[in-house]
């Protein structure tokens, strides 16, 4: 019964995903038209939060958490995976506190940036806010269940005491844990789940590799150290080989198929990201429409809902600061949506 309930919940929630025809409305429609789109998608509370003076980012994440909490109740063995997935949001709070420590931001200002995670929150926020410096903060975290993530980050920070090193190390260790947890559950959740994880981790690793190597000019050894250990198509051994290549085009040419074909025209890290994200969205849509195991469909929904919310964020932020419609469309990645749909049709 649990699987039937999960399937039913996912199907109901999937009906609220944004439709292709609604995306341009978010970019350039009237306030009333945008409100109607968000209402149909079950996102009216975002506008209500903005009118009440709440931060957009907090409202976006609250929407994601609401969905995850609903799915947790029916996820069975998938609950552990979803619980770990929510650590991403608490890491956002931790990063905000770290940035505040580096910039000596007043504690009251930091509190306004933090996301209320309700009963899912486990960070000792008040204790962390009262620490003297980042060193003390990291030592304090090593007494919590974040110890494994933080130890890796502390070593990176001690070698290179910069906020970037901390951020990158925290992200890397989080996704490493996610990969290990997914590996334990792949046999139960099936090939569709593994395929979605592969698309996500391969995209993350490739984008990070290109960004660190060619935008930040980091040496190959440091680049490889900051990538997520992986058993997927872009395996750790292949990533090590890609990290030593000296040109952007050489990396893309050395990729296995189908990535090499998908990215043949990519000329920037941003283009690689948007193309890979678009392909991942199409894969998630295919899983959602299939008879895959319930948790695979639930994970596909989470991926697609997160993409929707990124587009909503881009649209609302763009309008708030007065960007023109074309710039907002680009920020939402609408050209990639159209190109991806055309590719699928072909």
Topology:
Layout: H1 2-14, H2 23-28, H3 31-40, H4 44-51, H5 56-72, H6 79-85, H7 87-103, H8 107-113, H9 125-129, H10 134-141, H11 147-159, H12 163-215, H13 220-225, H14 236-243, H15 248-253, H16 259-262, H17 269-289, H18 294-320, H19 325-332, H20 334-345
How would you sum up this structure, described in words?
The protein has helices spanning 2-14, 23-28, 31-40, 44-51, 56-72, 79-85, 87-103, 107-113, 125-129, 134-141, 147-159, 163-215, 220-225, 236-243, 248-253, 259-262, 269-289, 294-320, 325-332, 334-345. It is mainly α. The chain has 20 helices and no strands.
Quick recap:
The chain has about 350 residues and is an all-alpha fold. About 75% of the residues lie in helices and about 0% in strands. The protein is built from 20 helices and no strands.
